[in-house]
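Researcher: Here's a chain I'd like modeled. Treat it as a single chain, no partners, no ligands.
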Amino acid sequence: MAYNIIVPFQQASPGIFPAQNNENFQRLRDIINNDHFFTDSIDVGSQGIHKQCTMINRADPGSLPGGSGILYSKNDSNGNAQLNWYNGNSIVQMTPGVQLFEGITASLGSGAFADIFPDPGYSYQATC
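Model: Modeled as a single isolated chain. Structure tokens:
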């Protein structure tokens, strides 16, 4: 039995509703479980946790309510999906990388050395 968007409907026998209803709810669970952590628990603390955020490209938004912003995906000039932020006034392309700081500069004497420990999960470039 496949998902049926018009269940329940008046003309159907009540006898087929439970099976179709179960199929529909299982399909909804599969859709939700794709991006979210889904449990069979009443613990509301874990129900809103995301595994990932999958975005479908869209056009730039036109307007937003005051004090709000939108994170969305759209194609760049090369046809690659990029993450964008719109705050109601300006659009900022967030990927392929947002530069968080200008850099680290160190002057070391002859024979001196320095260890720089980056945060896990980040990659850095160094030039000499």
